[in-house]
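# step 3/5: fold
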Amino acid sequence: MCGIAGIFHLETAKPVDPARIRLMTDAMLHRGPDGNGCWTAPGVGLGHLRLSIIDLAGSAQPMASADEADVLTFNGEIYNFQEVRAELSALGHVFRTTGDTEVILAAWRQWGVDCLDRLNGMFAFAIFDQRHQRLFMARDRLGVKPLHYASLPDGSVIFASELKGLLAHPA
């Protein structure tokens, strides 16, 4: 059980204070005793709390693609990640880790939103696509892994694995 949280400013690329992301993840510390991370860029911030299950030493998050164009924060497990990874490898993708996190990033790069059709598992994730300045969020079809979100009066969207994470945001 990992924890994810983030802030996305839809209309302007105003700075996201990393302390605000940490405040949101700190409200859910029990979700990730094995590590934490925070990544920000103009208009977006992603946070992660890690419970290591697959690729114990690698796959720190938020994880950026090799060219750093896409950044992912992910909670869950992709059961068929090895099959998807083999398919992506055959298409020319190169992997730096052995876990399922990087497979999601490569699947996003290869198939965009249609990557969801190939992922079998329980998951909630957010990917920030820096080329198009967009945030894509998804969760598994049954909602096993939670993904709560709220729109703020300033036009921003916040999200977290738990309501506590949303309530930690001052707005």
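# step 4/5: annotate
The helical segments are 18-26, 81-90, 101-111, 163-167.
# step 5/5: archive (pending)
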